[in-house]
Structure to design on (252 residues):
């Protein structure tokens, strides 16, 4: 969001300079016949600012500024949806909209190492869940995917990774998949991946609690499933399954 704000600020500062100088010349022309000095000053200003270039570029800059404002609005909406207090109560939720918000919130984690695409099943019905906690689970999976891809890129700097986030209506489940083209999970640690405090990350990069908490949220609070499919050196898919039919009791 900071980059968008800086871009907007710079674009409008340049436009403001041109507008102010144009107003000065128009006011001078309305009062008196422009002097030789006025004409020379105008010519110098036009040369300094490359007016012909600005005539072409300013409309584009304004369009890009409006795009930047829309991006900021999208980020703000996503953060509000992601952190809404009601998101911690069992209630019917639009998982596809939740996934879009999570992608936006997590963008700084993956944008430098991977492209992220989504395939969201439009036939997926509302799912009774604590959508805020499901957002946290998927955010954790996307962050882990980004880190796995970053590790793979260290071995192959010419490569850019890919993350695929999908939802699927798979009765009796609503299914979410996060697939990455990272390093995969080595066979010797696969059985420990959900253990508390287990991590393969360097000191300071992880507590080893993310997957443990995610599994608790999905399985204990929602009666769902969380598991993974992996191929070392190729990548990993984490699968979240949430029951489509809930008893109506809040599992808090």
């Amino acid at each position: 969001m900071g980059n968008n704000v800086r871009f907007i600020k710079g674009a409008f500062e340049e436009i403001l300079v041109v507008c102010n100088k144009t107003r000065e010349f128009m006011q001078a022309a309305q009062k008196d016949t422009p002097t030789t000095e006025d004409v020379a000053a105008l010519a110098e200003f036009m040369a300094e600012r490359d007016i012909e270039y600005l005539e072409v570029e300013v409309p584009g800059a304004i369009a890009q500024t409006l795009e930047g404002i829309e991006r900021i609005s999208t980020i703000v909406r996503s953060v509000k949806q992601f952190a809404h207090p009601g998101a911690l109560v069992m209630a019917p939720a639009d998982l596809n909209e939740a996934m879009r918000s999570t992608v936006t919130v997590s963008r700084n984690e993956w944008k430098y190492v991977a492209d992220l695409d989504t395939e969201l099943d439009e036939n997926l019905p509302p799912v009774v869940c604590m959508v805020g906690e499901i957002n946290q689970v998927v955010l954790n999976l996307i962050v882990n995917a980004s880190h796995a891809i970053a590790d793979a890129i260290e071995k192959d700097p010419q490569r850019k990774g890919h993350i695929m986030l999908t939802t699927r209506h798979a009765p009796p489940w609503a299914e979410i998949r996060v697939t990455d083209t990272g390093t995969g999970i080595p066979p010797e640690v696969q059985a420990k991946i959900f253990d508390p405090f287990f991590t393969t990350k360097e000191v300071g990069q992880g507590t080893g609690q993310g997957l443990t908490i995610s599994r608790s949220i999905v399985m204990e609070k929602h009666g769902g499933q969380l598991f993974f499919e992996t191929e070392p050196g190729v990548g990993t898919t984490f699968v979240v399954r949430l029951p489509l039919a809930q008893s109506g009791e809040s599992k808090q």
Residues 2-79 form one domain. Confidence is low (pLDDT under 50) at residues 247-252.
